[in-house]
Each structure stands twice: as structure tokens, then as C-alpha cells.
Amino acid sequence: MPKLTATSHEMPHANSAPACDDKPPEHVDLAKGPEDGSRGTPSTRASRQSDQSGLRVLHVIDRLGVGGTEVGILKVIQGLSGECFQHRICTIRGFDENFARSQGFEGQIYVAGRLNSGLQFLLGRLARIMRDFRPHIVHSRNWGAIEAMPAARLSGVPVAIHSEHGYEVDMLDGLPSRQRVFRRFAYAGADAVFTVSEQLRSYHSRQAWLPIERFRVLPNGVNTSRFARRPAESQETRQRLGLSDGSLVIGTVGRLVPIKDHATLLQAAEILISRGMPIHVLLVGSGPELANHKEFVAASPRLSGRVVFTGAVSNVPALLNAMDVFVLPSLSEGMSNTLLEAMASSLPVVATRVGGNPELVEEERSGWFFEPGDVVALAAILERIGRDSNLLQEFGQAARRRAVEHFSLEGMIGSYHNLYFELARKRGVLTAHQR
User: Can you give the pLDDT at residue 264?
Assistant: First the structure.
């Protein structure tokens, strides 16, 4: 069973957690948190307190790298890293060593399987990892880690939680029957199942043939201190990227993969440039579609010199500050972290009417919607925004207010805290005076 240096003798083997404050933290100091995959050590305090007892939580994920779900795990670990919690991560298909090192997770990651090895049967390996760490709570995320639910029951873990955070392209037309059957089995055996949006809740309820009441919703949260409008940073970043002062900067952040459909944004930009609008496009992120998009831009006389590809970066807040408008052209979404980060950065947003997007954006108040792949509609919205500077300020301020009031990181951390403690009490994990 391959794993890093977290060994069994480092972990306390008590069956119950100690007495500690079971109220959610009133304030989570995450001003330097890892929303964008930037450097930080979210689990440093947990590492220093490895000799103390606490609610031991094993987070199981398909692969640990730079991505929305992974960033969500880091937020939870950093926000719940006091003496009442100890965290470890278990990956099914390995991890990005540079990413793990930058986040301070060396020696705290278990690896159950092998990278790109096709179908794997890991029930036994997962159970052995759980017996080694002896978690009070196993929390698996998405289909790639769902086998952790029966493994948790096999190894006697008190609390098993599974959550669904988004879509893959092959999910859009429904799930294959064998996957639906296994999901139903795994969900039924979990103490709690939640999604990050109401739309995902409805989807998985239908796909697993389970009542919608069986699923909870815990929305994502954004660090509104880290992601905020900073005019001086905006000017500095634009100069560094070579963006002219008079242009409208239209940008997006995310992995360059087919489901994100960046091609629609590039085609809409071509239309705007043909109409004489001074615009630049800022694409933040990397992925398998990067080469295709660069080739498309190079072949377009209109786009040439007007598109900046940053690749994978750690300074996403600064790059958001360089934008005037944020566009999310995805074919599907769970609940987009980057959309929340753009809203917190006081950017008006234009997004496809899919997944959890309508739960985040108030149409014609903090942003606009268009149908997936509708290049003409996207171009029309962006042209309207570009020709009315008042809309930029009005909608940007409204987006910021909505992020602060409804999707704060403190609120998200409080929801996870309450869920973990609720189920730990229910399963008799906590000491007597905590019940």
C-alpha cells in the first residue's frame, strides 16, 4: 500500500475524540488561503499537534492537484485546523508532488491506487488505510473516490460522508446504469450525502433513484478578504501583461478543458473586434486545450495580439483585478469557485445558464446569462457592457455584495464544522459533555 510518511504510530487510536468547543469558528483567518492554488501551509497547525487527539478526518479524492474540488478540501482543512481536528488526505490515483509540497502536505497523504491504471478494485487498500489512520470521519468526494464509502463501513469508521462537487463531460447525458446502481448503494450506506448546489442535488437524486431529501446542500464559499477589488493592483497587472488602458479586458479563470468551452469566448471576441470594440481577452489557466486555443488565436487576424494566455498561475486575485468583465462559458458546472472569486472581486459576470450558476448570479442585477455555445448571444451581452461604463460599476458592486452576504468562506467552514460535529455526536464519537 503506497503512501507518504504518515505512519500508524503517529496517530492516536482512541475511539472517541476529546472535549472541545463544538461551535463553528466565528472568524476564519484565511487572508492568505489557497483559493487559487497559491503557496501556503493549510495543515501546518494540524501537523504540529499530531500528538494530540481530535476529530480525525480522512478526505478521499481521486487525485490531488490544482482544481476546484482540491482547493475546496484545502479550504476545509485550513479552516478546521485547530485542536479539535486532525486531517489526512487519501488519493485514489496519486497526487501532484509540487502542489502537495507547496501546500505543506508532505507526509500527510495516503495513496491507494496507481495513476492512469484504468479500472482498479481498491476496497481492501482503502480499508487498510482507514485502519491505519483510524479516522472518526471519512469524507469522499465525487465518483472517483466513492469506493471509500463501502470501505469505511468495512473498516468500522463511525461516520461516512460523500459529496458531489461538479460535472464531467460524460455526465451531461446521464450516467450509465452500472454507475447509477453503485451510487445508490454507496449513498444509501453513507451517514450523509451532500452536493454544492440545488441543481446537483436534483441531478444525483434522479440518477441514484433516491428521494431528494436524502441529499443536503452545502454551497461553496469564497475568501472575500483575499478576493477584492484593488485599483492599484489592477493598473500594475495590466501594465505587466501589456494590456492597453483604453481596452475592455474580458477574462476567465479555469482549466483549459473541453467542458469549460473557452472556444465560445474566443469566437465572441472575434465578433466584438470586427465591430470595432477595443478589447483584450485574458485566459488564466492551463490544460489539454491550451495548444488548440493558441493555434486558433494565431490563425485569426482579429485575435492576434489581443489574447493573453497566462498558463497556470498562483496570483489569481491580481489577474482578476486586471479584468473588467468575467465570463464563464462552461457547458456545465457544479458550483463554480472561480465565478464566486470574480464576484468577490467586484466583477460583473456573464455565465452560461447551467448547473449552479443561476444560484450564484442574480440576472440583470449582478450578471447575465447565455445558453451554452451561443456565441452571438455572448457577443451581444459583452457589447452592451462594453458600451456602458455605468453597468460595469453597478453590476460589479452588486456581485461583490452577493458574494459577501451569501457565499462567504466563513459560512462554508461553519457548515462543514456543524456537519462533522452533528454526525460525530450522533455516532457517539464525542465525549460526554459535548453531546
Answer: 98
171, pLDDT greater than 80: no
Q: What is the pLDDT of residues 320-343, one digit of tens each?
A: 999 999 999 999 888 899 999 999
pTM: 0.80
pLDDT by residue (tens digit) across 34-68? Answer: 333 332 333 333 333 344 468 999 999 988 876 66
pLDDT higher than threshold 60 for residue 8: no
Can you tell me the distance from the alpha carbon of 210 to that of 203, in angstroms, rounded to the nearest whole number? 10
pLDDT at 20: 63
- On average, the pLDDT of the chain sits at 85
Q: What domains can be seen in the chain, in order of their start residue?
A: 8-221+408-434 (3.40.50.2000), 231-406 (3.40.50.2000)
Measured CA to CA, the distance from residue 312 to residue 254 in angstroms comes to 9
Residue 392 class from Cβ within 10 Å (0-12 exposed, 13-18 middle, 19+ buried)?
A: middle
Radius of gyration (C-alpha) of the chain in whole angstroms: 22
Give the integer Cα–Cα distance in Å for 279 and 383.
Answer: 10
Residue 158 has pLDDT above 70, yes or no: yes
Among residues 197, 122, 135, the alpha carbon closest in space to that of 423 is found at 135
SS3 string of the chain?
CCECCCCHHHCCCCCCECCCCCCCCCCCCCCCCCCCCCCCCCCHHHHHCCCCCCEEEEEEECCECCCHHHHHHHHHHHHCCCCCEEEEEEECCCECHHHHHHCCCCCCEEECCCCCCCCCCCHHHHHHHHHHHCCCEEEEECHHHCCHHHHHHHCCCCEEEEEECCCCHHHCCCCCHHHHHHHHHHHHHCCEEEECCHHHHHHHHHHCCCCHHHEEECCCCECCCCCCCCHHHHHHHHHHHCCCCCCEEEEEECCCCHHHCHHHHHHHHHHHHHCCCCEEEEEEECCCCHHHHHHHHHCCCCCCCCEEEEECCCCHHHHHHCCCEEEECCCCCCCCHHHHHHHHCCCCEEEECCCCHHHHCCECCCEEEECCCCHHHHHHHHHHHHCCHHHHHHHHHHHHHHHHHHCEHHHHHHHHHHHHHHHHHHCCCECHHHC
Residue-wise pLDDT for 240-277, tens only, equals 999 877 899 999 999 999 999 999 999 999 999 999 99
